[in-house]
Design goal:
The protein has two domains: about 70 residues, no CATH class; about 55 residues. It has about 130 residues and is mainly alpha-helical.
Amino acid sequence: MESDKHIIGNTIEAFNGFFAFSKEQFYEQYKEHLKPYVNLGQGLYAPKSQYKELVKAINDTSRSLAKFDKKRNSNKDIIWRALQNHEAQYTDSSDTIEALKHYDITAEEINAEYDKYIKYCVRNDLI
């Protein structure tokens, strides 16, 4: 089975999007005939003519992946995995809340688990 990142990557590629974190990376990947490009944030670029479709496709794909994940994992497991992935013990729950926006998990649910997660990290010397 493909990973979520690979599936999203294929979606981005299908709409001629790419990630670039420097001018050099941008110019290595852009295609002259698709100019101009739009910066969608977090290093993601897409042709202006396709960016709306790309954003919609990413959101649709993310919702489908979230739905599949929720069938296999509890909300608590999903939240804790995201808290760990975002190293929330060093920051706060805001990145996790944003990352789980397609999961229909509320900020209140995430923050309730965040409190438990922080206590776990303190007890286990993970901070």
